[in-house]
Design a protein that fits this description.
The complex is a heterodimer of chains A (112) and B (116). Chain A has no helices and nine strands. By secondary structure, chain A is mainly beta. In chain A, strands 1-9-8-3-4 form a five-stranded mixed sheet, with no helix packed on it. Chain A has a four-stranded antiparallel sheet with strand order 2-7-6-5, with no helix packed on it. Chain A is globular. The N and C termini of chain A lie far apart (37 Å). Chain B is mainly beta and 116 residues long. Chain B is 0% helix and 48% strand. In chain B, the strands form two sheets. In chain B, strands 2, 4, 5, 6, 9, 10 and 11 form a seven-stranded mixed sheet that branches. A four-stranded antiparallel sheet of chain B has the order 1-3-8-7, with no helix packed on it. Chain B is globular. Chain B starts with a strand and ends with a strand. The chains are: A mainly beta (112), B mainly beta (116). At the A-B interface, strand 3 and strand 4 of A face strand 4, strand 5, strand 9 and strand 10 of B.
C-alpha cells in the first residue's frame, strides 16, 4: 500500500471549514483514499473514501487531484467535537486483506 | 443496531498472567481485524480473521499472541505471559466483506490493557 504524508497538526476556528491535506504521490491505479478519525483515544471512525472522483457525504467532502497524487478532506463547518486525529490511508480496493495502515495523522484542533 | 462491542473495556494484569480480549462484530459482519495502539503511537494492524480462519497475521508478534474467531461467539485475542510492553489499547474492527471498495471497517471502543 502506498505511503501518505500529512501535516502533524492544524488549527481551525469553530464554524469555519477545515481543509486537511494528504499527499500520496506513489498511489497506484487500484488504490482508494480513505479517511478515518480518532477522537480522544476512542475507536477510529470512518469518514469517507474515494478513488478518483470527488466525494461528499453527511460528514465531509473529499477532493482528489486529477493526477491522484494528493487529496483534501474538507469539514465544511468545523465544531469543537471535530477535534481529533485525522488519518489519510490508501488501500487497495480488492485482492488484498483490506488491512488499514495508519500513519501519524493530522491532529486537528478546533478552537472557539 | 449495535456496533462493534469489546470487553472488557479495561483490563489489568500482572506480568506473566494471561489476557483475553473479546470482540463481537456488528450483526452480519464476518470479517474481524485487530489493531494495537501503544501509548503515544499510531494504530498498528495485528491480524485479520474470517469465521474460523486466520487470513492475515502479518502484524502479530511471533510469540505469546494468538487470535481466533470461532463459528459461534466472539473473536478472541489472547496474550500469554504478558509483559509491561504489552500495555496498550487494543481495537477490534469488523466489516461485511473485508476487502472490497467501500467496505469500511467499523471500530469498537477498544480494550485498554495495563500490565503491572
Amino acid at each position: 500500500d502506498a505511503k501518505t504524508t500529512q501535516p502533524p497538526s492544524m488549527d481551525c476556528a469553530e464554524g469555519r471549514a477545515a481543509n486537511l491535506p494528504c499527499n500520496h504521490s506513489t498511489i497506484s491505479g487500484n488504490e482508494y483514499v480513505y479517511w478515518y478519525r480518532q477522537i480522544h483515544s476512542q475507536g477510529p471512525q470512518y469518514i469517507i473514501h474515494g478513488l478518483k472522483n470527488n466525494e461528499t457525504n453527511e460528514m465531509a467532502s473529499l477532493i482528489i487531484t486529477e493526477d491522484r497524487k494528493s487529496s483534501t478532506l474538507i469539514l465544511p463547518h468545523a465544531t469543537l467535537r471535530d477535534t481529533a486525529v485525522y488519518y489519510c490511508i490508501v488501500r487497495v480496493g480488492s485482492g488484498n486483506t483490506g488491512k488499514l495502515i495508519f500513519g501519524q495523522g493530522t491532529t486537528l484542533q478546533v478552537k472557539p | 443496531n449495535a456496533g462493534v462491542m469489546q470487553n472488557p473495556r479495561h483490563l489489568v494484569r500482572r506480568r506473566g498472567q494471561e489476557a483475553r480480549l473479546r470482540c463481537s462484530p456488528m450483526k452480519g459482519h464476518s470479517h474481524v481485524y485487530w489493531y494495537r495502539q501503544l501509548p503515544e503511537e499510531g494504530l498498528k494492524f495485528m491480524v485479520y480473521l474470517q469465521k474460523e480462519n486466520i487470513i492475515d497475521e502479518s502484524g502479530m508478534p511471533k510469540e505469546r499472541f494468538s487470535a481466533e474467531f470461532p463459528k459461534e461467539g466472539p473473536s478472541i485475542l489472547r496474550i500469554q505471559q504478558v509483559v509491561r510492553g504489552d500495555s496498550a489499547a487494543y481495537f477490534c474492527a469488523s466489516s461485511p466483506q473485508g476487502n472490497r471498495p467501500g467496505d469500511e471497517q467499523f471500530f469498537g471502543p477498544g480494550t485498554r490493557l495495563t500490565v503491572l
